[in-house]
């Protein structure tokens, strides 16, 4: 191929073109010696302008130059084909390094995944522990509240029982002489009508004792007062006698709760 390129790129003696042979130049011109004047020879820095060639010959000459340029490009491509481009594949050492790098990345990703899973498991265990602790505290609080309520209820029952015992001891026998006693009609909030006779020297506290004993669950354990409606008067001074409190004749009283 080197010899072919050498033959192709030989220089024309007449026009300084790189040609294998030139059919345009007449034999007389080709045999011209260097000391003879060369008509139309290209001067340095100027294109060749032949003066003794016809227009048809000039056209053939231009076509020939175009063909030569195409042949030169084809042969240059053939020469480049003899020298293959460097392979994109790396050397065995580079491939081994790449595989090692990939393994390191995979190992790092696996370790990161394991770490994340461990953190999630630890967080879930902590959450479950906190929830169990919260449930335990709530159960203990409910149990404590239940015990407190039970204790309060027991204390209330004991208090009522104590008041009932005191009321029994405080309440006098009902007088038998109707002319010397006061008749009481006492109404409770639940609709009960309590009737009893008291002596004028009995106290207001003894009337309260009677209501507590006979008023039932509606009045037991509740704070209340005795009220006269027309005109409205309250009887809360339990140390007064009935006469001193101004109670005379048949008395109608209402039980009014004051602990609401």
UniProtKB/TrEMBL annotation:
Q: Which InterPro entries match?
A: Ubiquitin-like_domsf, UBX_dom, UBX_domain-protein
Q: Where is this region: Disordered?
A: 32-51, 81-157
The UBX domain extends over 186-255
From the Swiss-Prot or TrEMBL record, give the protein name.
FAS-associated factor 1
| Domain of life, per lineage | Eukaryota
Segments of skewed composition (Basic and acidic residues) = 96-105, 112-139
> Which PROSITE patterns would you find in this protein's record?
UBX
Pfam families referenced in this protein's UniProt entry, alphabetically: UBX
């Amino acid at each position: 191929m080197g010899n072919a390129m050498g033959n192709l790129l030989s220089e024309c003696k007449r026009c300084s073109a790189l040609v294998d042979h030139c059919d345009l130049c007449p034999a007389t011109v080709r045999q011209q010696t260097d000391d003879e004047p060369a008509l139309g020879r290209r001067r340095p820095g100027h294109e060749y302008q032949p003066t003794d060639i016809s227009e048809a010959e000039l056209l053939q000459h231009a076509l020939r130059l175009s063909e030569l340029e195409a042949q030169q490009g084809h042969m240059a491509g053939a020469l480049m084909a003899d020298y293959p481009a460097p392979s994109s594949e790396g050397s065995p050492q580079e491939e081994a390094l790449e595989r090692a790098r990939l393994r390191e990345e995979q190992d790092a990703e696996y370790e990161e995944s394991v770490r994340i899973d461990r953190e999630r498991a630890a967080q879930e265990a902590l959450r479950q522990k906190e929830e169990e602790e919260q449930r335990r505290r709530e159960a203990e609080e409910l149990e404590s509240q239940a015990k407190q309520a039970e204790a309060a209820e027991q204390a209330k029952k004991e208090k009522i029982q104590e008041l009932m015992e005191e009321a029994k001891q405080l309440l006098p026998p009902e007088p038998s002489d109707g002319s010397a006693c006061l008749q009481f009609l006492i109404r409770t909030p639940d609709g009960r009508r309590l009737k009893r006779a008291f002596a004028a020297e009995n106290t207001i506290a003894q009337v309260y004792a009677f209501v507590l004993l006979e008023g039932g669950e509606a009045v037991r354990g509740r704070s209340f007062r005795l009220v006269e409606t027309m005109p409205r008067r309250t009887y809360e001074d339990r140390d007064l006698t009935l006469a001193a409190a101004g109670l005379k004749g048949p008395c109608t009283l209402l039980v009014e709760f004051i602990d609401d």
